[in-house]
Amino acid sequence: MSEQLKQHRDQIDAIDEQVLKLVNERAKLARAIGSLKDDGVIYRPEREAQVLRRLQANNQGPLANEAVSNIFRAVMSNCRALEKELSIAFLGPLGTYSEEAALKQFGLGRSAIVCGSIDEVFRTVEAGQADYGVVPVENSTEGAVGLTLDLLLSSPLKICGEITLPIHHCLLSKQTDIANISHVFSHTQSLAQCHEWLNRIMPKVTREAVTSNARAAQMIHDLVSTDGTFAAAIASKRAAELFDLNILAENIEDDAKNTTRFLVLGSHEVAPSGQDRTSLVMTSKNIPGAMVQLLEPLSRHGVSMTKFESRPSKQGLWDYVFFVDIEGHQHDAKVKAALAECLERASFLKVLGSYPVAVI
């Protein structure tokens, strides 16, 4: 070993000792803060978002902001676990993108509650069997997840946070040759997100939808071929590791910027973080120009609307509800004033939650 290399490694060892000491000091302070809380709420997404934004603003590299966020999310997750190990419900089995989103937001300092459906995630959190739930709400390619929106309409749960997750699909199989594949299994949205790639590379395979990507990988792991044909799954790299499958192709999504947005569901409201989003659902009165009148207060008070999605209300034929995202927190003065006027003009309005905008 050269003397220069040894010097660098000695310096790294010394820095590691300092980091270890400082992280433990931080953990002691976090535990002390936990003992002072009188509402029993351990997870403070607004505070965590403020910490990550401040660190990214002060980051001078060479680590990228995303790497800095990953490191400090792990630190905060393990410090939080000293107060309580949070239980997080998500759509299973293990290896789904929902699990990846839960890991990104809550880290390893949590216990996983694997659910068989999005409905079950809602029910599990509503029943108090999980502290929080993570559910997909929209994809940049395929749009909204209708079931999640429908359940938000009737659920007492609040949106406590959001997670954006880049989605990179892989083709997984026990086989090592794509030419041997006759069937491809995956979630409906994943099949759609890889539609053009499948048309180009595997035009003759049969595509079959299942409840989740990880469920598809699990099926391929358990499947025994009796006629010499073989199947594959579209899922994540993590699913390949969990179910011991070969990766036949990576990044097969049609859009390289393919991203899914997830919501964190809980039973409590979240305080302002300084960069927030508010989600609501409402219906307009059945009079000409009602929708324009309903949204007019947002424009007049300078509140930006970032999403407008209609869904059947299931209360009557051709009756719709409107899901709206706006910038700002419901307790911000201009948002509060605008929502008060919208409430007067709407036949129904429900605030689903105010929460920090996702930090990359």
Automatic annotation (TrEMBL):
Pfam families: ACT, CM_2, PDT. It comes from the Bacteria. Residues 1-87 form the Chorismate mutase domain. Residues 87-267 form the Prephenate dehydratase domain. GO terms for molecular function: chorismate mutase activity; prephenate dehydratase activity. It catalyses: prephenate + H(+) = 3-phenylpyruvate + CO2 + H2O; chorismate = prephenate. The record marks 260 as: Essential for prephenate dehydratase activity. GO terms for biological process: chorismate metabolic process; L-phenylalanine biosynthetic process. It is found in: Cytoplasm. GO terms for cellular component: cytoplasm. Its EC number is 4.2.1.51, 5.4.99.5. Pathway: Metabolic intermediate biosynthesis; prephenate biosynthesis; prephenate from chorismate: step 1/1; Amino-acid biosynthesis; L-phenylalanine biosynthesis; phenylpyruvate from prephenate: step 1/1. Catalyzes the Claisen rearrangement of chorismate to prephenate and the decarboxylation/dehydration of prephenate to phenylpyruvate. This is Bifunctional chorismate mutase/prephenate dehydratase. It comes from Methylotenera versatilis (strain 301). The lineage of its organism: Bacteria, Pseudomonadati, Pseudomonadota, Betaproteobacteria, Nitrosomonadales.
